[in-house]
Design goal:
mainly beta; 2 strands; two-stranded antiparallel ribbon
Length: about 45
């Protein structure tokens, strides 16, 4: 996967929410502000 440059739109992706439903970033394009937080977690 290539890096995304600063100040460019994030690529579309899909993840499961806590209810198991698939949610896509593009579902919110133009509708709501979206904040992406990537957490590596604790090991």
């Amino acid at each position: 996967m290539a890096r995304v440059a600063v100040h460019t739109p994030a690529p579309d992706f899909a993840l499961e929410d806590f209810r198991g439903r698939t949610v896509r970033l593009s579902d919110y394009r133009g509708k709501k502000a979206v904040v992406l937080v990537f957490n590596r977690g604790f090991m």
